[in-house]
Amino acid sequence: MLASISARAGRAALSFLAETGAVWRLATVSLARFLRGPFQRRGVRLRSTIEQIVRAGHSSLPLVGLICFLAGMIMALQSAYQLNKMGAVDLVADLVAISITRELAPLLTAIIVTGRFGSAVTAELGTMKVSQEIDALTVMGLEPISFLVVPRLVALAISLPCLTIFADLIGIAGGMSVATLVLEMGVAGYLAKTVEALALQDIYTGLVKAFVFALIIGLICCQRGLATRGGAEEVGRSTTISVVRSIALIVGADLFVTALFYLRG
Amino acid sequence: MERDAIAVEVRGVRKAFDEQPVLDGVDLSVRRGETMVILGGSGSGKSTLLRCIIGLEPPDEGSVSIDGIDPYAASWSQLEQLRRRIGVAFQGGALFGSMTVAENIELPIAEFTRVPPATRRIIARIKLGMVGLEDAMDRRPAELSGGMIKRAALARALALDPSIVFFDEPSAGLDPVTAAGLDRLLVQLKRAFDATLVVVTHELASAFKIADRMALMHEGQFLVTATPEVIRKSEDPIVRRFLDRAPPEAGDSAQKFEKFLDDLEV
User: Which domain range does residue B124 map to?
Assistant: First the structure.
């Protein structure tokens, strides 16, 4: 019994180390290919990168907009409920602005993009792997990392911060809608309070988070896709694993970055 | 280049997965311009050997060379040269699902040459014409039948006019008529291109039709490498069993089952 538990724990630890190593290797090779790209013929896959930006960014706009608008409304209502007791309802604007830009916008956007784009990346690369398309690329001399991974990583690193700025604006608009319609605050007053409350650091904390989350989503989802073996069932399993791992790591990284900014003051 | 020169050379290749040997010391020489068929049952190791040769699966021991270049020890520029000179048609076609058939063929041309897009399209049309698929140029791989996919994969393998073409299981999963058509196409194309052809298959009829020489693989080793006539007359019991399509002796599975029970310690 004890032996079987320790054997399972050992196997799990080994597989965790192997996967971490694989992600790290993918990260370093991708960085090397990205830096070498401009000095090589056809080293920069501009068309493919733009296509991926459209897939990751543009296509996620409606859902990011909807969720962040609702999150802004919820934040406003929840904080109004508490602040009302202290007679400080006018602080709703500050609270919404800071919590949206520093926390909710980057986090929610990253989770939405993981579900929409990250899962699609794993499924796509996994299917390409099991149907030997990755082998075909390699044999043709088209390195899968330069050809498939780098454009997706670059696309995420560009589109996730852009989506986060969009989510910031929409989230604040959501809070404002509640403030004006339910709490009877004026639009101009609310906006003035928001601008007053926000510091530049709030915005770039969110953007730094978005950039870190983009790398997590890209690396985890690409690595899992390329590591898929077997058939269709394995593609499904890889997709689930990549989404679960990405989200867990995103939340972990969120805490880490938040703590880092907190300690810096 | 001389005709008798060696195009593909495999020396003492061993490969194991999870400590299970799949290739157990394989030697093979393919001469320039010949069609070598690697024949063997399922699980005999023939597809793994092909992956080792084309640079996808580094062997645990032994060496591989194509046109004198070892794909696992080559410099970047040698590898680039090598990849231009070989074409591979994979078992399931491995066509890129996000592209049309024509785009699949244009891709290697765009990557390795400076041919302008309009000319690339003409080349794709010519290559697809050779395999009888010019009407399917703008279709996606998902819209093609099994036989069409194999032909499109062959057209893509031929895109850069390679001197060595590898084909994994050309007739697997095809009906006999389509498979025979593909065999004929392979023979015709080989004559037209004067290329070296290495075909991996388990289909006897197909192998005898296209091969100049055949190598019969069994449990990770070559039993015999010879011309089809010699193989047909072979007296070796395992070769005969394979050629006569005889199922394994009943005794084999009974013994295996007994061993399985012994291992269970019941």
Answer: 6-264
- The Cα B211–Cα B36 span in angstroms is 6
Tokens standing for A11?
């196997």
B72 touches chain A (CB under 8 A): no
In a domain, B1, yes or no: no
User: Per the structure block, which two tokens stand in for A214?
Assistant: 């983009």
Q: Is the residue at B217 inside a domain?
A: yes
Interface membership of A133 toward B (CB under 8 Å): yes
Domain range summary for chain A, segments of one domain joined by +: 62-264
Blockwise average pLDDT, block size 10, chain A, 265 residues: 85 86 89 82 78 89 94 92 83 90 94 94 94 91 88 94 95 92 85 88 91 95 92 91 94 93 81
User: Chain A: residue nearest B56 by CA?
Assistant: A135
Q: Structurally, how many domains does chain B consist of?
A: 1
Of the candidates A131, A133, A141, which has its C-beta nearest B80's C-beta? A141
Q: Does the CB of A146 have a partner CB in chain B at under 8 Å?
A: no
pLDDT digit string (tens) for B57-77?
899 999 999 988 898 988 888
How many cross-chain Cβ pairs, A to B, lie less than 8 Å apart? 45
Domain harbouring B237, CATH code: 3.40.50.300
| Interface touch A141/B79, C-beta < 8 Å | yes
Angle, CA of A184, A188 and A192, to the nearest 5°: 110
Are the CB atoms for A179 and A76 separated by under 8 Å? yes
- pTM (two decimals): 0.84
